[in-house]
């Protein structure tokens, strides 16, 4: 691994963990789809402002193929986040975070069957078993991470598993079809699509 990437990995891990804690608290105030709809809407407004104000020379993407593919990615993103956030109604943010450590392992396995240059090797297989081990141990113990809940609901585990599967396919889809496009354009269209999917559910 390139050591220059390490600070970014640590920062993204901190931000991801923090947002789960905030999300767990926010579910006491909002339904999951309302909370997610507001998050996606605010992010979409931010992306739209970058294009409208031409910050760093950004222009609205015009490639129809990019829009079609990134819209598919956005639908998958909406499903992934809805599953993860909804799981927080049944278990703690810590348990959800630990279960999510299996996400890269699931993605690696999916990529093996879809991407010709992402085949499993011995090191990857060992990593997959290590990543899945923690999640399986939690599931076997029925841990919810909540003091007021003695045993976790299988619904929470099921929602995270479904979210990780969709997220894994989403990542492989982006790697296969969207790697050649500007990352900001892909992220923007993805966010617009996620907003359009989740906001109607909030009603």
Report the helical percentage: over 70%
Helices and strands, in order, run as HHHHHHHH
| Helix count from the secondary structure assignment | 8
What structural category characterises the helix and strand content? Answer: mainly alpha
Oligomer category: single chain
Global Rg: 18 Å
Count of DSSP strands: 0
Instruction: Choose one word for the global shape.
Output: globular
Query: Average pLDDT value?
Result: 88
The separation of the N and C termini measures 45 Å
Largest sheet: none
Structural description of this entry:
The protein is mainly alpha-helical. The protein has helices spanning 6-26, 32-52, 64-87, 93-100, 103-114, 122-141, 154-177, 183-202. Helix 2 (32-52) runs antiparallel to helix 8 (183-202). The chain is globular and about 50 Å long. The protein starts with 5 loop residues before the first helix and ends with a helix. 33% of the residues are buried. The model has no long low-confidence stretch (mean pLDDT 88).
Topology:
Blueprint: H1 6-26, H2 32-52, H3 64-87, H4 93-100, H5 103-114, H6 122-141, H7 154-177, H8 183-202
Helix pairs in contact: 1-4, 2-8, 3-7, 3-8, 4-6, 5-6, 5-7
């Amino acid at each position: 691994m390139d050591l220059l990437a390490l600070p970014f990995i640590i920062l993204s891990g901190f931000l991801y963990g923090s947002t789960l804690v905030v999300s767990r608290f926010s579910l006491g105030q909002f339904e999951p789809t309302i909370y997610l709809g507001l998050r996606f809407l605010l992010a979409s407004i931010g992306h739209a402002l970058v294009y409208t104000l031409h910050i760093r020379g950004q222009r609205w993407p015009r490639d129809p193929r990019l829009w079609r593919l990134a819209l598919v990615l956005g639908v998958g993103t909406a499903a992934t986040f809805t599953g993860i956030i909804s799981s927080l109604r049944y278990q703690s943010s810590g348990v959800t975070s630990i279960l999510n450590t299996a996400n890269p392992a699931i993605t690696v396995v999916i990529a093996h069957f879809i991407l010709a240059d992402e085949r499993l090797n011995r090191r990857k297989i060992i990593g997959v078993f290590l990543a899945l081990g923690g999640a399986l141990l939690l599931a076997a113990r029925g841990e919810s991470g909540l003091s007021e809940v003695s045993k976790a609901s299988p619904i929470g585990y099921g929602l995270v598993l479904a979210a990780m599967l969709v997220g894994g396919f989403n990542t492989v889809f982006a790697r296969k079809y969207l790697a050649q496009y500007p990352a900001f354009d892909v992220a923007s269209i993805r966010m617009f699509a996620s907003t359009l999917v989740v906001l109607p559910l909030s009603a």
